[in-house]
Structures are given as C-alpha cells and as structure tokens.
Amino acid sequence: xxxxxxxxxxxxxxxxxxxxxxxxxxxxxxxxxxxxxxxxxxxxxxxxxxxxxxxxxxxxxxxxxxxxxxxxxxxxxxxxxxxxxxxxxxxxxxxxxxxxxxxxxxxxxxxxxxxxxxxxxxxxxxxxxxxxxxxxxxxxxxxxxxxxxxxxxxxxxxxxxxxxxxxxxxxxxxxxxxxxxxxxxxxxxxxxxxxxxxxxxxxxxxxxxxxxxxxxxxxxxxxxxxxxxxxxxxxxxxxxxxxxxxxxxxxxxxxxxxxxxxxxxxxxxxxxxxxxxxxxxxxxxxxxxxxxxxxxxxxxxxxxxxxxxxxxxxxxxxxxxxxxxxxxxxxxxxxxxxxxxxxxxxxxxxxxxxxxxxxxxxxxxxxxxxxxxxxxxxxxxxxx
Length: 384
Fold this sequence. Notes:
384 residues; alpha+beta; eight-stranded antiparallel β-sheet; seven-stranded mixed β-sheet; 7 helices; 20 strands; 30% strand
C-alpha cells in the first residue's frame, strides 16, 4: 500500500489533490505437482500373505515418490517458475552436448538431475519457451555431480546419444511436463511450476508491461519485486551487510529480515572469510506437533540485529536471498505432499492401470508460494 496524494501544508491543496491509497493484489494461482509409481498385480498377489515381503517394497516406492516430490519443491522454492533445472551453452555459459553427454553451464546444477528423468531441451524468447525441433526427449542414464555432466539417451532404456535436434540453440533443460510450450508460457498465468524466490524477487528488475499474477511490477520495482543488490565487487560478508542496510533504508512495515539463504559454495567461502569471527546458532523448524528438526546457522551481525545464514544446495550459485520470513507463505490445498485419491470413484490410494495388471499410486500437492511484502526481501549477486 502507498498513501494517496492528499497531503499538503495547505489545507485547500490537501483536499484538492486528495486521492485514494494505491493498493495492489497478487492473484496467485495454484499449480499441481505429481509423483507416481506402480505396483504390479503379480507383486501384490505374491506378497498378499507376507507382510514382510510387501511392506519393504511398498515403503521403498512410497518414500521414493515423496522424496521426488519434496526434492522438486525444494528446487522450485528458489526457482522462477519456468521449471528449468539447468542449462548448457545459455548466454555466456560454456556448456555443451556431445554424444548424449551434457556439460552443464553450472557444475552445481548437476544435483538437480537423477537417473530415470525424462527431459526436454528448449529455448526462451521473452516469456515464450520453444521446445527443440521434433520435441525429442532425453532420458537420463548417468549423472556426474563432480564434473557437472548429465548423460542422456535418445530412447528409453537406450545407450548414450544426443536426442534429435538437441543443441545449444535449445540450452535449457526441464523435466517433461514442467514447461508450458505456448506463447507467453512462462507468464505467471501460464506457468506449470511454483513461483519461487527468483520469480517474486527477480535478479533483473521487471520491465514495462510486466504482469506477475496480474500486477505490473515495473511501476515500482523495489516495492513490488523486492530489492536487487550487486555485491560482486566486495566480500560476501560485506555484500550481505550492505544489502541488509539497503533493505533497512526502504523502511517497510514488515520488519527486518531474519534469514539469508546461500549456496553451500558461497557459505564455505563466507566461513573462511570470517575465520575466528564466526558465530553459530541452532535454528529449529517444526514439522508437525510431534517432530522438529534443527539447522546449524552462521550468524551475521548487522545494525538491525543478527540474521541467521543457512546454506541450501538448491540456492543458485553466487546468489543470496535475504528473507523476512513472516512475509512468505506456502499455500496448499491440504498437505503439501499427500496421496492423491478421487472420493466417490477411487477412495483407495491405488487405482487400476488401464490395460495393465497393475495399480498406480500418486502423491502430489496443489498450491503455490506467496509473498505479502516483496520490498522486505532482497536478492544479492555474490562474487563467489
């Protein structure tokens, strides 16, 4: 909210130029997310009378499905809603592809891929994504997180090979079904993925005509799309402190930031910079009424109090997000990850697979990330 124009040292002028406060409302939409697996009829019957045989296999598949969903949400929490998991040869990137071996632009992004994924390769013009000519898929058969490579096959279950027309002309990679290949498919109204930090606080200020959940943020980028701070010319510690000071200068009613998220590589660099000055604290997170977990956080002293710094592998390299936590909320229908059933049709967890002696089990969620005060948050570009 911004005050109207009806203020003046002259009573008459105050009345003459009176106007209503300027308010905006983000019309955030829900996006679904699914993770499925199948149990064959043969397995179900063979283990029907042996709980010892059934439970380990069923539990393994269920855990894997929930983990896949959780890993995706964790990655997209820092994403821009495009579904991108990595790139090869995008912009100034040096990545490439040869005989199915993809050298990624960022070594760290290799952690976003797992064997068995079906990938699409695409380019982006404005907010429109275009899939590689012939729309061929690449099936991940190997991942090397040390080298930053992902090896794909052009066929399911096949050997390493470059899918038809895959090249650095289509340098972005996503799982099939995560990108909306229509005109303006990456607009918030059409995105198929959760709008993460990079969507709400973009590293580049929104341009004229921006429409983010119906709001044109270019009219006041700092108030509607958070603060951007370039800290590439100073140490990580100084960049974080200066960005917090810049946030304080905005003086929002939301309060001061309380968390900073950075990539593990940047975190370790910061630890080395602080040497004996480093102070740590334990941050507790409540999962439910019975379960809580703790994180070890580095403490950053600032003029506005101490801020906990947490490392997260999903945070992009050389990037930090300075967050005022109470301004964010994950809004979901029911639980963020739950078994998908259809009341009145298939109340049970598994449903029959058409034309197959098997049942399909799906876990998923319906929701999005929201922020009620973007100017209380910042994205920081780091030197390392």
